[in-house]
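This part of the workshop introduces the protein records we will be handling. The structure tokens are whole numbers drawn from a learned vocabulary of backbone shapes. The record below serves as our worked example for the rest of this section.

===
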Amino acid sequence: LIKTSEMLQKICMRNLVRKYCRGLTAERKVQLQQKVVASAVFRGKKEGYVQSINQPFLDTRLKETDVNPKVLQLIHGEKIKYVTPVIKYDRNGFKARDRLLVLTQSSAYVVEMAKIKQKIDYATLKGISTSNLSDGILVIHVPEDNKQKGDVILQCEHIFETVTKLCMLANKQNLVKVVQGSLQFRIGSGKEGTMVFTVGQEPQVFKAKNGQLTVV
């Protein structure tokens, strides 16, 4: 009787799960898939993740019509999947610049108005790094070749959403690293820079006297 009861419970649970899954809309399925990936990447690793769980990911933060027509012409043929405003930090002087991050089916673009400043093919993407603190810093690591100027340092408001979208489109979930203390990034020409993460009273990003990019 006990075995029969356990079997019936399992069958009932399986049927309930199947009914739930069949009742999901396509949009809800995509949302759940993204949240599962976000959990695998950030759960127990980055501050603010728990608070982000009940916040749905948007399809995009900006519409395709918000992207300059000249840029749309340059990436013609690639379906745009996600666009978000970001702050890009120069690799040398760390000056902050307003940019757009445009994610297509095959590439990530850093866009300035009507110009594409950098293109990263997902196939060549070497890694994605963010810190364990509550900042929105994201580093996209690229290969050391003549096509790339160096790694891309970005700050975005919706860090969990943006990183999840990027790693899923690139199919490189396992290459996301949540680091503690500091990380190295490639400046170009074989040179490397250091980014240090620390805790303070006010969030800020600045170049320290020792030349390191400091994120508070």
Q: What stands out?
A: The mean pLDDT is 91.
